[in-house]
Amino acid sequence: MNSSTAVEQTAAPTTPATTPDGTPDGTRPGAVPLRALRLPGGLSLRWHRRATVVCTVILLALVGAAVWSLTAGDYPMPVSDVVDVLTGGGRRADRYIVMEVRLPRLLTALLVGAALGLAGSLFQTLARNPLGSPDVIGFTVGSATGALAVILVIGGSAAAVAGGAVVGGMLTSVLVYLLARRGGTQGYRLVLVGIGVSSLLSSLNAYLIARASFSDAQSAAVWLTGSLNARGWEHCGPMAAALLLLLPAAVLLGRPLRMLEMGDDAASSLGVRTERARVWLVLIGVGLTAAATAAAGPIPFVALIAPQAVRRLTRATGPNLIGSTLLGALLLALSDLAAQRLLAPTQLPVGVLTGVVGGCYLVWLIVGQWRSKRG
User: Fold this and answer.
1) Distance between CA 97 and CA 303 in Å, rounded?
2) With bands split at pLDDT 50, 70 and 90, how would you rate the model's confidence at 229?
3) Residues 94, 83: contact at Cβ < 8 Å?
4) Most CB within 10 Å of its CB: which of 83, 93, 203, 216?
5) What letter would DSSP give residue 26?
6) CA distance 116 to 296
7) CA angle, 226 as apex, 128 and 338 as ends, to 5°?
8) What separation in angstroms does the CA of 80 have from each of 67, 85, 119, 336?
């Protein structure tokens, strides 16, 4: 057997995987096969040429969005002045605009979007269902419930709110998983149970707001829309720490996640401890969702759209974790810019804009799924 044949066999999965849209990975129309790069020490690295090109384009778009965010606005600044500020110089007014107003908001948008995109990719792959994103199956609403309980009932600092969001997301995930686990966790059962739990928690959130004082209820209602207004370095720090911890963990679990996409039986036959891997992946996804919710409120549909858009752009098999992370960051950054700049003088919270776009996409997705099952 020659070396090229060995490389091709290493790169290609031996069992056809099932994608979140329900089609086998190896038989999807237009799917581009993976390649394996040989590294020193007998190691190999999966490499997908089209996915690499797509991720590079997304990175360039992220740079463009960052430049636009830091230079445009009511106080326009040339790129040279922004560079002076970032390198330690610049005028006092420029330093305040860039370092205290625009840069923290931009970084929060990028970090929150990246966390939501990664969490969406994890949950959609685990559920093997395009609707299996944290905002659809209730994890985002659960995190919001935990944060609201701290804001309206217990009271506390930003760290306490973040802790409440994490606890709320974890409890919701445990509840949804246990209710959907009977007879084996299936994608559609998980989605349906999650939608039901999400509705119950939304009613609980409304009850908490109704019982709160007017000022607390007003601030909580604004927070529930999902917004990046007035976000500072105190929001960037915890979000960056969460992403730095959970992103490498998700990447390290990429192989078990890819095997789980084939189904539990196939994953077990390939040596994956399915329940253990699933629990760790759920914990990572819930942690990402809770951190994003604590930093910016429940921003809908970024976790739903980013993984599926990346899958269509790259035509790559598997969860596409890095691409989903990058596209999630780009989607939220562009949505925030559109809410600030394009809709001026009215500045909507970014959650309103993502909700409108995501709602239209969700209707299109459900109609497409229904036609594919009937047609």
Assistant:
1) 30
2) confident
3) no
4) 216
5) G
6) 11
7) 95
8) 11, 9, 36, 23
The domain ranges of the chain are: 107-374
- Helix 233-252 to helix 321-337 angle (10° resolution) is 160
Instruction: Report residue 80 CA to chain centroid gap.
Output: 33
Residue 11, Cβ density class (10 Å: 0-12 exposed, 13-18 middle, ≥19 buried): middle
List pLDDT tens digits, range 251-262: 888 888 888 877
| Cα–Cα distance measured from residue 65 to residue 213, given in angstroms and rounded to the nearest whole number | 39
Q: Which residues contact 34 (CB under 8 A, 6 or more apart)?
A: 11, 12, 46, 47, 48, 316, 317
Residue of 342, 299, 288 whose CA lies nearest to 123: 288
pLDDT of residue 279: 84
Distance CA 137, CA 144 (A): 13
Amino acid letter for position 350: V
* Higher-pLDDT residue of 110, 349: 110
Higher pLDDT, 243 or 50: 243
Please give the Cα distance from 349 to 355 (Å, whole number): 10
Task: Provide the CATH number for the domain formed by 107-374 in this structure.
Answer: 1.10.3470.10
| Prediction pTM value | 0.83
Which of 107, 120, 334 has the alpha carbon at shortest distance from 241?
107
Q: What DSSP assignment string belongs to 166-205?
A: HHHHHHHHHHHHHHH-TTS--HHHHHHHHHHHHHHHHHHH
Task: Evaluate whether 327 touches 55 at the Cβ level (below 8 Å).
Answer: no
CA distance 352 to 343: 12
